[in-house]
Write a structure and sequence with these properties.
8-stranded antiparallel beta sheet; alpha+beta
C-alpha cells in the first residue's frame, strides 16, 4: 500500500469511527441490496395504483395566480422557467442543457447534483403555474413528455433516479401533478394509468430503502414522501402505516430539532429545508382531516423562531456550512408559518411570495394581509444548543453571527466546514465580512476550498484545516469546541469560544477567540493560539465582493464601497497580505451565494511573526479609525482600544475569562 492509499485509509477510518453501529449495519445492508439489484438487473415492480387520491396541499387558482399582489414577479419568473422547459432546455445550478435530442438522465459529464435536480422534478411547479396562467395544453404535453421519458429510461432500479432522496422529492412533485393536471390526466387514461403505476413503484422502493444509514435531513425527506403517499393511498404499496411513519418522524425530530429551534446539522440552508418539509407534513395532515400532533407543530414553531433569531433584517440567511440562497426564501417560510398558525408574530415583512400563495391561496393571502407587521426588536441572542451567538443592535442594522459549535453531528458530517470561530458581519444593513458560501458538491479543488479553514473568517495553523474535511461529504478528525463565555451589558457584549482542532498537529495548539463589541463603535476580535512548538499562524478576513481595502498606513485599512465609514486595524500581526480571486498556489478569495456561481472577493491575511503561544487580532471600527494596543504581563492579556478619543479595555485573566471596560 502506497502513502496516498494509507492516508485515505486513515481518513476513512477516522471518519467511520464516529458512525453508529446501526448506521454501519444499514449501510452494509443497503450496499448489498443495491449490488444484488445490479446483478439481477432488477426491474421496476409492476404495481397498479388506480385508487390514488393525492392530497391537495397546493392551490392552482388561475384568477389568484394571474392577479396582482406581492407574488406577481414570482409568478412571472415561474412562467419564464416553464417557457425554458417548453423550448426543451433544463437549467439547474446556473447551467443549461438542451434536451431536444432526448433527456440525458444519467449523463456522466454532468455533476451528480445537477442530475439530482433533473430527477427531482421540482420544475413541475413551474409547468403547473404556466398551465393555469398561460397555456394548459403546452404545459401538460411538456410534463407528459418528460415524465414518459423518465419512466422509459428508468425501467431498472439503478442510477440517480432510484436514489431514495430523489424518489422522496419526486414523489411529492408527481403527487401534486396528479391533482394539478387532474382533468388532463382523466382525458389521457393510458398515460394516467402508467404514471400512477410508476408512482406506486417508487413508493414501494422508497419504503424498503430508507436512508437510515445517512439519516439527518435525508431521512426527514424520505418520511415526508411516504407520509404523503400514505395519505394518498391508505394501506397501499408502501406497507407502512401512517401511525408508524409519524412515530419515526417524532423520533427523528426529537433528535434533529434542538431546544433552541436549530436543526442539528447547523446549516441555515438545510434548516430551511427541514422546516419546509415539516410544515408541509402538518398542513397535509390538517387538510386531510387528520390530527396534527403537538410535537410536530412545536418543532415547526421553534424552527420558525430560530430563523428570526439568526437572520439579519433583510432575511438573507448567513451562508454558514452548506448554505446557498436557492430554494424557498426566509420571508416566504415565515409568511407560511404566520398563516398556518394564524399568528402575526411570524409576519416580519409584507412579502408574500409564490410559495405561501400556493399553500394557502387567496384565503391565506387575505388573512396575512390583515395581520399587523411585527416590528418587535430581535435582541442579541445566545443559542446555546446550536451554539450560534448573535450580536445585534437596536436598529437591527448591525448584525454579527459567531459560530462556536460542533462542525457537525458526530455521525453526520456531510455538510460540515472547517469553520469554527468564524463569523459574518453586517454594518448598517450592508454585508461586510462574509462566509465564502458553497459552490457545489462535486469532489475536487472547489469543494475542498469552500469547506476549508482559509475560506472562513477564522485562524489557520500550519496550512491545516481545523477539521479534516475530505472528499465531498466526509470529515475525519474533528475540532471539538470548548466552553463559551457570553456576557451582555447595556454598554457592551463579549463572547468567547475555543476549539482543539490543532491538537492533532505537532504544535498541539488550542485556538481561543474573544469578540468584544461596543454598539455603534467597534468590534474587537482577539485570537490566542496556545501551544509550544513553532507554527505558521494566519487569520483570514473575507470581504463581500463589492468591497475593497485601501491601506492608509501599516496595519490600518479603510473599507471601500460602504455607505458608512469603516476601518480595520491589526495588532500583534507582523505581516499582512491582500488576495483576490487567487488560484496559485491554491484558491483564495472566492465567494459563492448560489450553486454553480463564484466571484472573486478580497481577503486580508494577518500573520504574527512569533512562535507559539501567540496573541493577535484586529479592530473593526465604525465612523472613524480606531487603534488597539496589545499588552501581555504575568500571564494576563490586555488590549487597550482608542476610538474617537475614548479608551476601552479588554482584559483576559490567567484562566482566559474576559473583563471589559
Amino acid at each position: 500500500m502506497n502513502m496516498e492509499s494509507m492516508h485515505r485509509a486513515r481518513l476513512f477510518l477516522s471518519t467511520a469511527r464516529h458512525l453508529r453501529a446501526e448506521q454501519i449495519f444499514c449501510r452494509g445492508r443497503r450496499y448489498l441490496r443495491h449490488a444484488w439489484w445490479k446483478v439481477i438487473d432488477k426491474q421496476v415492480p409492476s404495481i397498479s395504483a388506480t385508487d390514488l387520491n393525492p392530497p391537495r396541499i397546493l392551490h392552482w387558482d388561475a384568477a389568484v395566480l394571474a392577479g396582482s399582489g406581492p407574488w406577481k414577479e414570482h409568478v412571472t419568473a415561474s412562467a419564464e422557467n416553464a417557457e425554458r422547459l417548453l423550448s426543451k432546455r433544463f437549467c439547474f445550478l446556473k447551467y443549461t442543457v438542451p434536451f431536444d435530442a432526448g433527456i440525458r438522465w444519467q449523463d456522466s459529464s454532468l455533476s451528480q447534483l445537477w442530475l439530482y435536480h433533473l430527477h427531482y422534478f421540482d420544475y413541475l411547479q413551474d409547468l403547473l403555474v404556466y398551465s393555469v396562467c398561460r397555456d394548459s395544453e403546452a404545459a401538460y404535453q411538456t410534463f407528459r413528455s418528460i415524465a414518459s421519458s423518465w419512466i422509459d429510461y428508468n425501467d431498472r432500479i439503478r442510477g440517480n433516479g432510484w436514489h431514495p432522496y430523489t424518489i422522496s422529492i419526486r414523489m411529492i412533485n408527481w403527487l401534486q401533478a396528479l391533482s394539478g393536471f387532474a382533468d388532463r390526466l382523466a382525458a389521457d387514461p393510458s398515460f394516467d394509468v402508467r404514471f400512477r403505476a410508476s408512482l406506486s413503484a417508487q413508493a414501494y422502493i422508497l419504503a424498503h430503502d430508507l436512508e437510515t444509514d445517512v439519516r439527518g435531513n435525508h431521512l426527514i425527506a424520505n418520511l415526508r414522501g411516504l407520509i404523503f403517499w400514505e395519505l394518498a393511498s391508505p394501506g397501499g404499496t408502501a406497507s407502512q402505516s401512517l401511525g408508524t411513519l409519524m412515530q419515526r418522524l417524532q423520533r427523528e425530530l426529537a433528535e434533529q430539532v434542538l431546544r433552541d429551534g436549530g436543526h442539528f446539522e447547523r446549516s441555515p440552508g438545510y434548516h430551511c429545508q427541514v422546516l419546509k418539509h415539516c410544515l408541509e407534513i402538518a398542513l397535509c395532515l390538517r387538510q386531510q382531516k387528520e390530527s396534527v400532533p403537538d410535537w410536530l407543530e412545536d418543532a415547526v414553531r421553534r424552527m420558525l423562531g430560530y430563523l428570526i433569531d439568526i437572520a439579519p433584517v433583510d432575511g438573507a440567511l448567513p451562508l454558514l456550512k452548506d448554505t446557498t440562497w436557492e430554494g424557498t426564501s426566509f420571508f416566504d417560510l415565515l409568511a407560511a408559518g404566520a398563516v398556518y398558525f394564524n399568528d402575526p408574530q411570524f409576519k416580519r415583512s409584507e412579502s408574500f411570495g409564490l410559495y405561501p400563495l400556493l399553500l394557502f391561496g387567496s384565503e391565506g393571502w387575505n388573512r396575512f394581509a390583515g395581520y399587523p407587521l411585527n416590528t418587535d426588536l430581535v435582541p442579541s441572542r445566545e443559542l446555546p444548543d446550536s451554539r450560534y451567538y448573535i450580536m445585534r443592535d437596536d436598529s437591527l442594522r448591525d448584525h454579527l453571527i459567531f459560530d462556536a459549535g460542533k462542525p457537525c453531528p458526530d455521525y453526520l458530517p456531510a455538510h460540515a466546514h472547517a469553520d469554527l470561530l468564524s463569523f459574518e458581519l453586517r454594518v448598517s444593513g450592508e454585508r461586510i465580512f462574509v462566509d465564502s458560501g458553497v459552490h457545489g458538491y462535486a469532489a475536487g479543488k472547489w469543494r475542498d476550498y469552500f469547506r476549508s479553514t482559509r475560506a472562513h473568517n477564522t485562524v489557520e495553523l500550519d496550512g491545516a484545516n481545523q477539521s479534516e474535511v475530505w472528499s465531498s461529504f466526509r470529515v475525519a478528525r474533528r475540532a471539538r469546541p470548548g466552553k463559551v463565555f457570553w456576557l451582555e451589558t447595556p454598554e457592551y457584549l463579549v463572547v468567547q469560544g475555543s476549539h482543539d482542532g490543532y491538537m492533532r498537529l505537532a504544535t498541539q495548539a488550542i485556538h481561543r477567540r474573544t469578540l468584544y463589541w461596543k454598539p455603534g463603535q467597534f468590534w474587537l476580535i482577539l485570537d490566542e493560539i496556545h501551544g509550544t512548538a513553532p507554527a505558521k499562524t494566519v487569520s483570514y478576513l473575507h470581504l463581500h465582493p463589492k468591497l475593497g481595502l485601501e491601506e492608509i498606513q501599516d496595519g490600518l485599512w479603510h473599507i471601500e464601497g460602504t455607505a458608512v465609514e469603516l476601518f480595520v486595524s491589526t495588532f500583534g500581526a507582523s505581516s499582512n497580505q491582500l488576495q483576490r480571486g487567487a488560484m496559485t498556489p491554491q484558491p483564495q478569495g472566492w465567494y459563492s451565494e448560489f450553486f454553480g456561481e463564484r466571484e472573486p472577493n478580497t481577503v486580508l491575511s494577518m500573520q504574527p511573526n512569533a512562535d507559539l503561544p501567540v496573541c493577535f487580532g484586529y479592530l473593526i471600527s465604525k465612523g472613524s479609525a480606531g487603534q488597539a494596543i496589545l499588552q501581555r504581563e504575568a500571564g494576563q492579556v490586555q488590549v487597550r482600544i482608542d476610538y474617537a478619543g475614548r479608551e476601552s479595555l479588554l482584559s483576559l485573566s490567567q484562566n482566559g475569562t474576559p473583563e471589559c471596560k
